[in-house]
Queue: 4 jobs
Job 1
Amino acid sequence: MLQNENIYFFLLILPIVSFLYSSVGHGGASGYLALMALFSFAPESMKPTALLLNLFVAGISFYYYYKEGFFNKKMFLYFAITSIPFAFLGGTLEVDASLYKKILAVLLVFAILKMLNVFGKESDSVKQIKLWQGLVIGSVIGFFSGLIGIGGGIILTPVILLFHWGKMKEAAAVSALFIWVNSASGLIGQLSSGVILEKESFLLVAIAVVGGVLGGYYGSKKINNQKLRYMLAFVLVIACVKLFFA
């Protein structure tokens, strides 16, 4: 994994990605997968590595948002009840490498739109989510989370904001824990199907955690990092194009 000739550039960008994602309550799997795709990582190592990084970064982000009082337990449970088993199911399945890249490219569009704050506008009125809505959405996002190797927050956060089920920071707090449980379930599913985590993955964890801690702390407070988000969005666009036409 770390034999790439441009690995030092990759390691330099990694904590920046984890910082930006953690600041909005995300684990960053879509960003990590995009980076690994850009640096031509082996597809079989991308999914488990991204989920492992998610566990640490999303966990850190959730801690800071929970500490600030933004967590909505009821909303989280509505999504998580079905997302956890479906993430496990998705994690046990293998996807053709070409199809995998196309699906990931489509999901990266959500990440790009999120970084550009297309879904960042809050509504003055907040509606109550219904149980059946949470169960249906949770199952769909959970399945694709395990299948592709993401936590699903990059999809869940826009959904919460679009349907006015919560404010931005509340959506971030719910998404952070949602990402954590889906990442854990998806990773367990992958490991149970014979996927092996490379030892180098834990070095990437140590580097990503640095950005995750800073992002979670400043994101749960007040921070304006819009220029950096535009830069990350640009990187994601390049990765998206590369994946789609690979």
Job 2
Amino acid sequence: YAIGCFGRVRAQKGTDLFVDAMCRLLPRYPDFTAVIVGQVTPEQMPFANDLKKRIEAANLQSRIVITGELPIEAVQRWYQRLTIYAFTSRNEGFGLTLIEAMAAGSALVAARAGAAELAVEDGVTGVLVPPGDADALAAALEPLMRDVAAATAMGERGRARVLEKFSLDAEAARIGEVYRPLL
């Protein structure tokens, strides 16, 4: 099984929180591999190197994969491989990775950052946690790692919600609702 965290590798995106949670949880769940997909800019290299040191200290180099930036087709393939997605941003705008992961059918644990509370039905299509809290992140991820069938069912509900509320057709209809009365 795979658990992922996608986006630029930096503190604002909470990549360190994901690594901390994985360092705690992966030793107890040998069937899981963690993947971090995202760009590491030169100014974020010290942050990324610190993450690699934490991963090495936990002896999890083979189970926490940092891919770096990938072409969109490869990112899509990674989404399709995920069982669980962790949206760990400390602060965020809309956060497309959240919707992308839900559209791919991944169970979701999301920090209450940006539009996460609009996209996620807490306990139904995902689990919401406070931003910046690695303990809460790990506590929310563990039941889904323990019960993959429940994670899969949550992912299916999340995908249905995205198709209903966030598809291009749904977005166009909402925009139309705004403009129709004005015209």
Job 3
Amino acid sequence: MDVDAVILSIPFARIPQVAPLIAKVPADTVVIDTSNYFPHRDNGIAAIEAGQAESVWAAKQLGRPIVKAWNSIGSESFAHRNKPAGSADRISLPVAADSPRERDLAMALVEDTGFDAFDAGPLAESWRQQPGTPAYCTDLTRQELPDALAAADAARSPKRRDLGLAVVQERFRAGTQPDAEYLVRLNRAISM
């Protein structure tokens, strides 16, 4: 296999199942994980403690370093809100990794998809871009993202994640499907 990067966009609970496949990927290939942990959906996975980066768990399951990127943007925003470099309202996405080489490659790919890449530090800090944090699915600009990452609260974020999930589930049960703008407003309201 001669590839620079492999991007995992799978349900978080499936990560252990793809570990044998990832073991076959050359050591110099960058593995980028886009998944998020939702305890209500990921039955069978031991709870990830507040403040622990889900990405650290994923890296252990895969038996190799990973990069965390694209996990903090909703699918609708990803598909329709990309912009040319230099656009004033261009969304910025955090990229966390332990290896500068791997982080740089992932950041270049994020930029190529029409978003400003932001160096979010080591993988252990990637909890700051997980569900329930101010950086998660809030469509922030490069100027706004650093403050959002800094404001993340390890004890508060799982509560906010669960609250947001409960609100969305309630809307679905009522027969209303929230649109992308609603989800961004909801995430901003409960986490910022």
Job 4
Amino acid sequence: MTRREFLLVAHPGRADLVDTSRRVAELLAAAGVGLRILYEDRRESDPPETAGTVVLGSVDGLEVSVTDAPTAAEGCELVLALGGDGTILRAAEYAREADVPVLGINLGRIGFLAETEVDDSLESALLRVLAGDYRIEDRMTVDISVRRGSTPIGTNWALNEASIENAARLGVLEIVLEVDDRPVSSFGGDGVLVATPTGSTAYAFSAGGPIMWPDLEALLVIPSNAHALFARALVTSPDARIAVETVADGHDAHVFCDGRRVIDVPPGSRIEIRRGARPVRWVRLDSAPFADRLVRKFELPVKGWRGRTP
């Protein structure tokens, strides 16, 4: 019988990380489940030959297995993320690569992507996961490709958003926005965001976009600080073919994928964004409506609500 094993992705800057990781390790060990801990990113000073290897070490007496490779979750049943939304996005990279689900446990400030809070229900959440008492949702992603003429520049993916941004801090990025092979608008600005429903509460929300319920299938397109009369957010079909073209005599740009991975975009390039071929598998423990999560995470005022009359 194959031994069950989880991967724990933890925020390296948290002072309480070791104690929390120990609590997780003890609970899993009691259930006979192995634990890999990805404690921190590999440092640039580390020798190249260490990439992708497993290093056995100790963090304040806690024995850990540190793996730095895209396949860190290969063979695991589940990926646990301890931290805020940034840590959960990092964990989602490993979970998606191994096609296993990810569970976010919030140690951060808002932690909108987290399924539970570490102080409230860490033990009960882990016991439910160990018992298989959870469901899995597929969260939509986007695939991004960049080319210049017939020359491929790069490809990547995102769970939250692809943010096309001006690489220069002076001037504007001149672009043409296209949807389903037809031009929609041309303008100068800071760039364009293309977000999923999961990402609608993140950067897209800060940029003035609407919040979309996570079970909705759609793509959100938001011009960023556009110098244009028409610069509204667009909600398109999930299968829309979205493209952004930069002018040949304009600025360099970047595509930031979830703020973690970047593609450099030279002038005169075309960025194409499509529904992702592979979703992120999302662990759900909470059956409460999404509206309750909005109220709790954003501390929205609901005083005076009476509810539906029977």
